Amino acid sequence: MSATFRLAERLAENRPLVSAWCGMPTPETAGLLAAEAFDAVTLDMQHGAIDFREVLQAIPLVAAHGKPTVVRVPVGAFATASRVLDAGAAGIIAPMINSVADARALVAYTKFPPVGERSWGPAGALALNGLQPPQYFQRANDAVMVLAMVETRAALDIVDEILAVDGLDGIFIGPADLSITLSGGAGVNPAAPEVDEALDHALARTRAAGKRIGVYAHIPERAALFKSKGFDFVAASSDANFMRAGARALLGGLAG
Amino acid sequence: MSATFRLAERLAENRPLVSAWCGMPTPETAGLLAAEAFDAVTLDMQHGAIDFREVLQAIPLVAAHGKPTVVRVPVGAFATASRVLDAGAAGIIAPMINSVADARALVAYTKFPPVGERSWGPAGALALNGLQPPQYFQRANDAVMVLAMVETRAALDIVDEILAVDGLDGIFIGPADLSITLSGGAGVNPAAPEVDEALDHALARTRAAGKRIGVYAHIPERAALFKSKGFDFVAASSDANFMRAGARALLGGLAG
Amino acid sequence: MSATFRLAERLAENRPLVSAWCGMPTPETAGLLAAEAFDAVTLDMQHGAIDFREVLQAIPLVAAHGKPTVVRVPVGAFATASRVLDAGAAGIIAPMINSVADARALVAYTKFPPVGERSWGPAGALALNGLQPPQYFQRANDAVMVLAMVETRAALDIVDEILAVDGLDGIFIGPADLSITLSGGAGVNPAAPEVDEALDHALARTRAAGKRIGVYAHIPERAALFKSKGFDFVAASSDANFMRAGARALLGGLAG
Amino acid sequence: MSATFRLAERLAENRPLVSAWCGMPTPETAGLLAAEAFDAVTLDMQHGAIDFREVLQAIPLVAAHGKPTVVRVPVGAFATASRVLDAGAAGIIAPMINSVADARALVAYTKFPPVGERSWGPAGALALNGLQPPQYFQRANDAVMVLAMVETRAALDIVDEILAVDGLDGIFIGPADLSITLSGGAGVNPAAPEVDEALDHALARTRAAGKRIGVYAHIPERAALFKSKGFDFVAASSDANFMRAGARALLGGLAG
Amino acid sequence: MSATFRLAERLAENRPLVSAWCGMPTPETAGLLAAEAFDAVTLDMQHGAIDFREVLQAIPLVAAHGKPTVVRVPVGAFATASRVLDAGAAGIIAPMINSVADARALVAYTKFPPVGERSWGPAGALALNGLQPPQYFQRANDAVMVLAMVETRAALDIVDEILAVDGLDGIFIGPADLSITLSGGAGVNPAAPEVDEALDHALARTRAAGKRIGVYAHIPERAALFKSKGFDFVAASSDANFMRAGARALLGGLAG
Amino acid sequence: MSATFRLAERLAENRPLVSAWCGMPTPETAGLLAAEAFDAVTLDMQHGAIDFREVLQAIPLVAAHGKPTVVRVPVGAFATASRVLDAGAAGIIAPMINSVADARALVAYTKFPPVGERSWGPAGALALNGLQPPQYFQRANDAVMVLAMVETRAALDIVDEILAVDGLDGIFIGPADLSITLSGGAGVNPAAPEVDEALDHALARTRAAGKRIGVYAHIPERAALFKSKGFDFVAASSDANFMRAGARALLGGLAG
Ligand SMILES: [Mg+2]
Ligand SMILES: [Mg+2]
Ligand SMILES: [Mg+2]
Ligand SMILES: [Mg+2]
Ligand SMILES: [Mg+2]
Ligand SMILES: [Mg+2]
User: Fold this and answer.
1) How many CB atoms lie within 10 A of CB C166?
2) How many angstroms separate the CA atoms of A199 and A174, rounded?
3) How crowded is residue B130: how many other Cβ atoms within 10 Å of its Cβ?
4) Could you tell me how far CA D10 lies from the centroid of its own chain?
5) Three-state DSSP class for C139?
6) Cα(D23)–Cα(E209) distance, integer angstroms
7) Residue ranges of D 194-253 with Cβ closer than 8 A to chain E
8) Beta strands in chain E (DSSP E)
9) Measured over all CA atoms, what is the biggest interatomic distance in chain F, rounded to whole angstroms?
């Protein structure tokens, strides 16, 4: 019924989601992609050009299509995670969670007591979902999906401990950063064999922990691969890439 | 050398242009499409969600790729045409020019005396192009392409008179509105046979008048057709359509 | 089903509407008021601080509550009326329609052929309502409510002729301007007796013409009066006044 | 007492004003210049990059220094003139008033009945000045300075008729456009001898008519000249020029 | 004299303040409420939709009414506290100060040496208040009110230690979060008896420490209670609630 | 060739740079100053009114003049440093680096592995510079200039250790904060003798370490002094000061 809670409901039914990925500083883009066959829309505040105001404006445009908005916050921006949850975001992807302490801090800012220490004040989420405060308070800790990005060797080494953090719903793999760290800084290649090994390992450990795992696919082929492997949440390509692809399809047909 | 003047130069060399078409309220979209193989970017203030501020911000982003920006203004918004030329736009598309008086008013606002009555104050264009006032004044009337939209039966009936208006560089056909008027309001079909007849007629009359003709293509197939027919300026599809097409290509590959 | 068409449906059922009135430059305000028991939200671009961008952003926030957005455009801004209809507005209130020619120009910009000359390009409305172009084209002329403001002695004198203009859905009375003109410029008093006489006259003439009549109520008492008189569309007070009233209620309780 | 009325008060005391001229799309610039020794700040919506929103935001920042804001609107944008007066602007400069009909239309949109037909709704001005509606209504026609730009040969030829238009407070000379028209479109030179002759003539005719005359000075030398000639309102240089001048002063000192 | 310093002056006179509470992303709302009988306006960046830009724009609008602006920053956003003080904010409310280390960090970012480590650069505050740098530097540490939010059991347990932190002006109670923590995460009820007990205790301890105490009242009844108890700073309800209350008052009168 | 890399190239050639300093919340200001004879433009997010969105928009406007943009981030805002580098900034100035741990954290967020831990995602920088990911990855650590602000006594005491941090390109002196700390909080005087001594000391230690040193000059005289002393990067005055200086030059000429 409520767009914000759709994400948790889908996962509870073991139905994986494919999410659009947005980095352009315009809320209308998110709304446009929500009208397509994606299950969710993810807004990237870490590497995208999206800031707090655009997130605020995009969430209701995505919700108008009955779909949840997930937000990737900048590194360490846990207070921002709280703010976008207040605005009605359905999930948080937090980059560079490299220690159990990082993971616990993430939970502290995104789950209400007694699980975490999230502060009360979800005016936007209440308005979006038509809930009264007690209802939202009771449901929010379950409904909000909080994923810790595992994208360094350090994080991979303690993936079980991260997955065991109470209140954390799962992990999200960043293949590009992972490729950099796994190559010792030699280069970036999100489809490198060692990245795929790490992905398989992380998927297996997540399943063992009974939690959720998401992943970013920079190209359609990778999205198809990740979907077939059974990842719970596959965020693919980007608004900019979609636009480029559409433009190139037209221009290719006009050339020659 | 200067992005603003690239449009006139291309036309002087009898090299037709293909333009992206933008309606989303974000200047970054225009910049992204300028990086693709389009010859120009057109911003739609009539039916798009673009307002003055976005045009101001988009023009330098397009110019950074050495390409001209064309602006379609709202109906009758000739003063807005002056303002976007001041900001460095290379061309104007003015909708619903249905009389010679309309066409003359358009020229009055977009060409300096003695051709028209455009008021002096091109601060943005000077800054963008690195010109001094006398240089810009001497070149602007030739460099700025002003196209009157012919998109009603009334306009078609007097297309020769419109084309004869001094200072007007040519016409631009709007197939959707033309289809409505040619069907007597029965429906909208930009690819109707009577539209194609009108397009051929307008093209022939433009050639006879020694002026320029542009057209909007709502789908790639029409863009290819119009290019093959020899239209001088083919504006195709839209930023939103490109994004949708790219998203659907991904989603199609993931389905089933 | 579609928020844009709710307005026409309500009127077709002879169920009068009460609308919030917004002048603050923030789309969120419109969304907040749409969540209250208003039947519609009206955005004031004439005397309010609202510009095109805010209208674009407010329409989907109001539609999220299943309610239509009406826009009062600035004097003579008929092209702006077209633009906000493209964005999904359900109705237009056009100020200072003082002649039949004004009324016809208003219709020309807001109704498609053969009734008017509205240009095709409702991308926002299609996206908002999930319609295909032919559906929207067939329904738009009936669904969009276009009201001419009658607010001068000159307009009152020809109210029958204005009401007779084909394609115009009705009139909207502006009591403040009416009071100025009826007093010969002596002062402003929207509740003056001569204003009430004029309102009754206009209501009677509208009923005789089988069209619709709206009115602006600057205070709650007037809204109640107009509702009891049977006006079809009563727009009341304003976002700023609501905020002031709420603040004063609190402060009154704290004083002393 | 009220910033909006300061302009009329100064003119009533026969004390000429020097105004800053702003074209950058940022309200803070206007506030910064209001803190300097200017008597007023003028915002240029015709050739500047300023739109409605920036005017709304700049007016209170200028008023915070007890100074009036004047707005130059785009050509023919009389409805915009009404809107910025509603927001608290103290004066309007309207470009390209080339006929008595133009001048009358300008007055119609900027003065209340019985002088003109300005529509009631000055919410911003009331809030800014702390006035009640009756007070503002009584004072506004006198307090708002409306100047018609005389900047073509056609306008010069009928300057007496323009000055005679009831409700018009005076004229404002645009030397650049005047130089273009006086040279028959040969070039732009705001300090050409024929421009100076025209300025002297316009000044004399204005004095004969008992009205006010303003002028734009593109460089400091011209501002000094105009001030010494006794122009009532001298608007000088621009925010961008001030910034450039300040930067060049620094850079000059660092060079070599 | 200066709006920024009004807050400290009021407190020095032992005159409690009632503040409006703003969460809507529009600076005009803050200005509107400043015109009412509030003593201050508080902008909520933690749970409100307000970001840095809106704070920058709201401060002068509030100051135009001679009133101070207080800003509640997000959790841990001490650098943001510095930035809004630079812009002329008169006070800071910092949420979730749960340790003496948190309180000291807050002081470090908001008080100049030797009390704290606030970095120099108050351009906005200087412009707003018309002060020279030495004047502002001498007065700022006394004039800026810095309140640490006590809203967890952990904070309550060490309230004396927090109050003892040098440079901290006092505390601010958040009843909603307090109710969550005091109930062990069972629910949210800002008017629960244990909250009231905690409030009385915190008030007594603040008086014993000779510092200041503020509190948030979510409904008017609580504001009246807190005022009667002698809290120094009572922030009440919200801009959104005021607007809803005003709208409901109108709608209630129209129903039936 | 690429604006982003121009900064590193200049420094590699031992050619010092003079940078404009911007604090006004408008990207156009940065573009305007880039057109002057500055070698770079620095945007101040710490004490200026500039936020993330303005940085994003300013970078391409500065790059259009072939010049690099440097960004001073707020205290501790290392994640923001990553974000503006993603957008194409050429350098980072980080305030209040008072320990080796601070300096290492700064490097972690601004240099890719193996030097630091910067996360991959430079979409803006790639678009701006026309590079492919592997090219940017290989060049970014060298091309991005990261300067730690040394502006407290604590930092001065360990300046050698800070300069020794691997991946840090150098330091940047903040004379105002330095004067506060060196005076024990007695006052602010960026041209105090002890500040000059500290500057000379820092310059000598930087040369000994083979790294780079920048400094802020609040007035032109200090900029000239610092340039003559051989500082690598002198950022001078500010956009606001330039505008004031230009306005005062005009007004001075008009007075009397
Ligand atoms: Mg990553
Ligand atoms: Mg058309
Ligand atoms: Mg009216
Ligand atoms: Mg002119
Ligand atoms: Mg709290
Ligand atoms: Mg500093």
Assistant:
1) 11
2) 9
3) 12
4) 14
5) helix
6) 53
7) none
8) 17-22, 40-44, 69-72, 91-94, 145-150, 170-173, 212-217, 233-236
9) 65
SS3 F32: helix
Mutual angle of helices B52-63 and B27-34, in 10-degree steps? 30
3 state SS of E18 = strand
Chain B nearest-CA residue for C87: B49
pLDDT greater than 80 at residue A1: no
- The model's pLDDT over D24-74, given as tens digits with 9 standing for 90+, comes to 999 999 999 999 999 999 999 999 999 999 999 999 999 999 999 999 999
Q: CA D224, D229, D231 angle in degrees (round to 5)?
A: 90
Nearest to E119 by CA among F77, F106, A74, D35: F77
The answer for residues whose C-beta is within 8 angstroms of residue D192's C-beta and 6 or more apart is: D179, D182, D183
ipTM above 0.90, yes or no: yes
* Residue range D109-165, pLDDT digits in tens: 999 999 999 999 999 999 999 999 999 999 999 999 999 999 999 999 999 999 999
E strands along E74-231, which residues? 91-94, 145-150, 170-173, 212-217
Report which secondary-structure segment, H or E, holds C207.
helix C193-209
- Per-residue pLDDT of chain F (256 residues), as tens digits, is 478 888 999 999 999 999 999 999 999 999 999 999 999 999 999 999 999 999 999 999 999 999 999 999 999 999 999 999 999 999 999 999 999 999 999 999 999 999 999 999 999 999 999 999 999 999 999 999 999 999 999 999 999 999 999 999 999 999 999 999 999 999 999 999 999 999 999 999 999 999 999 999 999 999 999 999 999 999 999 999 999 999 999 999 998 6
Q: Do E184 and A113 touch (CB under 8 A)?
A: yes
Known active-site residue C218: no
Distance of CA F152 from the midpoint of ligand 6 (Å): 9
**Confidence band, pLDDT 50/70/90 cuts, at residue E115:** very high
Q: What angle do CA B227, B230, B236 make, to 5 degrees?
A: 30
- Residue C41, CA distances (Å) to C59, C82, C102 in order: 9, 18, 25
Nearest to D124 by CA among E64, C35, B139: E64
Q: Which residues from chain E sit within 8 angstroms of residue C220, using beta carbons?
A: 249-250, 253-254
Is C73:C84 a contact under the CB 8 Å cutoff? yes
User: Which of the following is catalytic: A47, A65, A201, A218?
Assistant: A47
Chain-centre distance of CA B27, in angstroms?
17
Which residues surround the ion ligand 6 when the cut-off is CB under 5 Å? E 119; F 151, 174, 177
The answer to whether residue D109 neighbours chain C at the CB level (below 8 Å) is: yes
What is the distance in A from the centroid of ligand 1 to the CA of A109?
20
> What's residue F72's pLDDT?
98
Strands (E), chain D: 17-22, 40-44, 69-72, 91-94, 145-150, 170-173, 212-217, 233-236
> Terminus-to-terminus CA distance in chain D, angstroms?
51
Fold of the domain spanning A3-254? TIM Barrel (3.20.20)
Cβ contacts (< 8 Å) between F53 and chain A: which residues? 25, 51, 53
Residues 6+ apart with CB under 8 A from B166: B107, B115
D49 lies within 8 A of chain B by CB: yes
Q: Do C117 and B95 touch (CB under 8 A)?
A: no
CA angle E71, E73, E79 (to 5 degrees): 110
Residue in the block written with tokens 């590194």: A75
Taking a C-beta distance cutoff of 8 angstroms, is the pair A86, A125 a contact? yes
Neighbours of F15 (CB within 10 A): 10
pLDDT of residue E1: 46
pLDDT of residue B256: 65
Three-state DSSP class for residue D42: strand
